[in-house]
Design goal:
five-stranded parallel sheet; alpha/beta; globular; seven-stranded mixed sheet; binds flavin-adenine dinucleotide
Length: 465
């Protein structure tokens, strides 16, 4: 007899471990199968280590540029080994925290690779041999892996992905980054702050291509001013990539003829693919299309016993999306789901300098969805707090439904905006209007005033512009 659980979860990343905790809260017995480390990509090779190193990069930049605020620092030096030790300490501490949460919630964590033997039966191949377990339901939360482009081989030294970029022993002197999405933009920002010569190559007409067009423009201008070479509308010539002992050479094509580039490293930040290989999905009714596990609005796969959450189902590949999906899936399984998942309420953040944050629809998307749109915009250049921080780049834009006044989207670029997006996200959840966000009192002097003023601007009532 296989050991039986109410729910078996494959993958202990942000999606899987959060789902496990919520399932226990709902009275379920849970087995969480993890083949590597609890916390997954986000904790070990994603959100946390990148943000720890971005913090070091910004501190290094600030230390060298304190004179304008009356702080003259001489002899500023980067200690990359210390920065990496600090990064690892944070990761280790959070890893211990997740392990503790599993114990506290009495979740059975099985160390090994889970493979379906049937829709409800999973074999776990671990260091001590194989064990078979049975779940009333199984949740696939196996995450994703970095991809490259056809013919561009990742060698881990000269041609690297984000996993390798986080493990570099030294900051590269020069780097070409292919892919102007969140990961590419964050590494461009980090390495430039740390002194590298960076070229960012994006195939679409603008970097951060999924964001509001004006937001992309601000990031692109700020990057260019900082000395990052931004090449949008450019396609990497896949056959041109040649790695050697001392660097990598490549060519990109663009409407103005393209160019040859040389650099220490080429970072391929061109997207991720779902971890579905070797899972034994053929033993289940689960369907995979274009590489992603197919699910309905409640994260049910085509197999009634199997759910899937997080990166493996595609869409927004974000940690908080994975965990919200995990919570939703176990609530559906338990008959405790009270609200549908709404991807319009999922914030998207990029932690570059300047930062980017958005929630809901862009102006363009709202119009395409048939919404009559009103927008309000407030620039950080008009805000006291932004001047005090010495960083007045960017703005907050609020998109509303002209008929109801409801906020349908918010788009921000500038200093610490990733901490400001929570307000319009909550506003959207509560079906709040721009008028209500403007009515809410924002402390002075804070960056959050830009949110209140942008909301007021949508109503034609902004005070400071
Ligand atoms: P994962 O975190 O990938 O977890 C899946 C787990 O499943 C892994 O631990 C894996 O070992 C395990 N597994 C796989 N197959 C099996 C199997 N057969 N049996 C057992 N275990 C298995 N998101 C943000 O929201 N904010 C950020 O700032 C951010 N920064 C990022 C930076 C980088 C460089 C990268 C790469 C990603 C970043 N992300 C960020 C994305 C975020 O990391 C992912 O969206 C998130 O980790 C997805 O969680 P998940 O649970 O779906 O998958």
């Amino acid at each position: 007899m296989a050991d039986a659980f109410d729910i078996v979860i494959l993958g202990g990343g942000m999606g899987g471990y959060v789902a496990a905790i919520r399932a226990v809260q709902l009275g379920k017995t849970v087995a969480l199968v993890e083949k590597d480390k609890l916390g997954g990509t986000c904790l070990h090779t994603g959100c946390i280590p990148t943000k720890a190193l971005l913090h070091t990069a910004e501190l290094y930049h600030d230390a060298k540029n304190g004179a304008a605020s009356g702080v003259n620092v001489t002899g500023v030096e980067l200690d990359w080994a210390a920065a990496n030790q600090r990064k690892q300490k944070i990761v280790d501490q959070l890893h211990k925290g997740v392990q503790f949460l599993m114990k506290k919630n009495k979740i059975e964590v099985l160390n090994g690779t889970g493979v379906f033997e049937s829709s409800t039966r999973v074999r776990v191949d671990g260091p001590d041999g194989a064990r078979t377990i049975e779940g009333g339901n199984v949740i696939v939360a196996t995450g994703s892996h970095p991809k490259s482009l056809p013919g561009v081989e990742i060698d881990g030294e000269r041609v690297i992905n984000s996993d390798h970029a986080l493990a570099l022993k030294e900051v590269p002197r020069s780097a070409v980054i292919v892919g102007g999405g969140a990961i590419g933009v964050e590494f461009a920002s980090m390495w430039n702050d740390l002194g590298a010569e960076v070229t960012l190559v994006e195939a679409l007409p603008r970097i951060t291509p999924l964001e509001d067009a004006e937001v992309s423009q601000v990031v692109s201008r700020a990057f260019t001013r900082r000395g990052i070479k931004v090449v949008a509308g450019a396609r990497l010539d896949l056959k041109s990539v040649k790695a050697s002992g001392d660097g990598v050479r490549l060519h990109y094509d663009s409407d103005d003829g393209g160019a040859d580039l040389n650099a220490d490293v080429l970072l391929m930040a061109v997207g991720r693919g779902a971890n579905v290989d070797g899972l034994g999905l053929e033993k289940t009714g689960v369907k995979v299309e274009k590489g992603w596990v197919m699910v309905d609005d409640d994260l049910r796969t085509d197999d009634p016993a199997v759910f899937a959450i997080g990166d493996v189902v595609g869409g927004y590949l974000l940690a908080h999306v994975a965990s919200h999906e995990g919570i939703h899936a176990v609530e559906v399984i338990s008959g405790e789901s009270h609200a549908p998942l709404n991807y319009n309420q999922m914030p998207r953040c990029t932690y570059s300098r300047p930062q980017v944050a958005s929630v809901g629809l862009t102006e363009e998307q709202a119009r395409e969805a048939g919404v009559e749109v009103k927008t309000g915009k407030f620039p950080f250049s008009a805000l006291g707090r932004a001047m005090i921080m010495g960083d007045t780049d960017g703005f907050v834009k609020v998109v509303t439904d002209a008929g109801t006044g409801e906020v349908v989207g918010a788009h921000m670029v500038g200093h610490n905006v990733t901490d400001l997006i929570a307000e319009p996200a909550l506003g959207q959840l509560l079906e709040g209007t721009a008028w209500e966000i403007g009515l809410s009192v924002h402390a002075h002097p804070t960056l959050s005033e830009a949110v209140g003023e942008a909301a007021l601007a949508a109503e034609g009532r902004a005070i400071h512009i």
